[in-house]
Each structure stands twice: as C-alpha cells, then as structure tokens.
Design a protein that fits this description.
The protein is α/β, with parallel strands linked by helices. Helix content is 51%, strand content 13%. The chain is built from eight helices and five strands. Helix 3 runs parallel beside helix 4. The longest helix is centred in the middle third of the chain and has 17 residues.
Length: 166
Amino acid sequence: MALWLNGPFGVGKTTVARELVRTGAVLVDPERLGFVLRRTIGRGRDYQDLAVWRRLTGRQVARQARRHPSIVVAMSVLHPPYLAELLARVPGMTHVLLDAQPETVRARAAADVDDPGARAWRLAQVDRYIAARDVLLAVPGTVLVATDGRDAAQVAEEIRSRTPRP
C-alpha cells in the first residue's frame, strides 16, 4: 500500500495518516526536505515550485516504497502538474483525495491547536483547493474520501477498504 493523502490544508491529512500508520505503515514527510530547500535555495518561494524538491521527494517516496510494504504521504499538492509528476515517480502510488465542505475545512483550521501559527495561511488556501478540486479528482485512480462529520478512524477505515493492500 502506497498512499498519497491530498486535499485542502486543514482537512485532516496528518491526523488520518497517524491513524493509518498505527497498523504498520510508514509515514513519509516531504515537508522536512521542503523546509530545508526553502531556507537554502528557495527563499520566499513555495518549495513545491522547486523542481529539485519534486525530484528529491519522488526519490525519497519511491525509496521508502521499496523498503516498506505500506507507506503514507500526507501532503497537499494542489498544482495538478506537480502532483502528476510526483505520482509518476512512485509506481503503484494511490492518490487519495480527502475532501470536506469549505465550511468544515475553515472550522477545522480555525480550531487547530497543534499549529495555530499556520491558521491564517490554511484559511487563505481554501479557495485554492476549491479551484483545483475537479482537476485533482480527474487524476487517474484517485480515491475520493469525504471527511465531513467523521473522525480520523472512520476515514482511515474507508481508505483501507478502498485501496490496494500489500
């Protein structure tokens, strides 16, 4: 099982990923590399715009997929060409689009206590997700999972039931 959890910022990707890794999957976090690149070569830019980030992230995820029978990546990639590039680098990766109504995403972002400093930025990204949603849904093999009114365990169980197992 190789899953890329995508969706709006604040939809619950990290929380659902934590639930999925409880059953033995390995969490791969491309943000760490992004933070390093932003500080060194991409000052002031979204690190996803850096081709080196996409290339190295693809390598990192593919390496982990070869080493472990189950991996989970929890990261919003709302620019469809970037997502296609990343998914193409990892054979067998399933794109899972976690979705929620804009009001739900805004409420979750506003209530976040883990990273309150990101609250304003996440709220500002909701419209960006809405604009990209239909194109993200059109990615071949995408599994759409609604998260409205559901906890992480329920969402994780649906993902497990609808995606390939090792």
